Amino acid sequence: MVSEELDITKNNLPAEQGPVQYVNELTTLNLGPTHPATHGIFQNILQMDGEKIVSGEQTIGYIHRAFEKIAERRPFYQITTLTDRMNYCSSPINNMGWHMTVEKLLGIDIPKRAQYIRVIMMELARLSDHLICNGILGVDTGAFTGFLYIYQEREHIYEIYEEVCGARLTTNMGRIGGMERDLSPTAIRKIKELLLRFPKVLREFENLFNRNRIFMDRVVNVGAISAERALSYGFTGPNLRAAGVDYDVRVMNPYSSYQDFEFDIPVGQSGDTYDRFMVRNEEMWQSLRIIQQAMDNLPEGPYYADAPQYYLPPKQEVYKNMEALIYHFKIVMGEIDAPVGEVYHAVEGGNGELGFYLISDGGRAPYRLHFRRPCFIYYQAYPEMCKGLTLSDAIVIMSSMNVIAGELDA
Amino acid sequence: MLTNEEVAKAIITQFGENVSDFDDPYDLLTFSTGREQIIRIFTYLKSHSTFQFGFLTDITAVHYPDSVGREFCVVYHVHSLTNNFRLRIKVYLTADDVHIPTLTPLFASANWMERETFDLFGIIFDGHPDLRRILNMEEMDYYPMRKEYPLEDSTREDKIDALFGR
Question: What is the ipTM of this complex?
Answer without folding.
Answer: 0.92
